[in-house]
Each structure stands twice: as structure tokens, then as C-alpha cells.
Design goal:
Blueprint lengths: L1 H19 L3 H21 L3 H25 L6
């Protein structure tokens, strides 16, 4: 039960950090952390199919798409 509360707290902190970060790559990593924690929570709630989908799509695919999109754009300061 303590582990579940720790994961929920981790999700909240990472979500707040993602909205506060000025660097986009850091914000994407924080949202990936939220997605991974949600995936672990889904697994603990006896929904392994939802956990696998969240890990594959929410953490891996979305992160890769965001990072590719950020890398292909130019910074405003340049």
C-alpha cells in the first residue's frame, strides 16, 4: 500500500514538474515518468493488458515522437 502511495506521489510531482520546466526535453522526460508510474499502477490493479498498452504507447511511442519533433524544430533563440 505504501508503494502505491509513493507511485501516486511520484506521478503528481512529475506532472507538476512537467508543467514547470522551461526545457521541452525535460518536460517530455517528466511526462514519460508519469506514464511509467501509471503503467505500474495499472499492473498492480490487475490490468496487465492496460499496463502494457500504457507502457508501449504512453511511455515509449509518445516520448519518441515528442523528442523527434523537438529535435527537428529550431530554437527560438537561434
Amino acid at each position: 500500500m505504501i508503494f502505491v502511495f509513493f507511485l501516486i506521489l511520484l506521478m503528481l510531482v512529475a506532472a507538476i514538474a512537467a508543467s514547470v520546466f522551461r526545457d521541452l526535453i525535460s518536460a517530455v522526460i517528466a511526462t514519460t515518468l508519469v506514464s511509467l508510474a501509471a503503467s505500474i499502477l495499472f499492473y498492480l490493479l490487475a490490468a496487465p493488458d492496460v499496463a502494457m498498452a500504457e507502457a508501449a504507447i504512453g511511455a515509449a511511442l509518445t516520448t519518441a515522437i515528442f523528442i523527434i519533433a523537438i529535435r527537428r524544430t529550431k530554437r527560438y533563440e537561434e
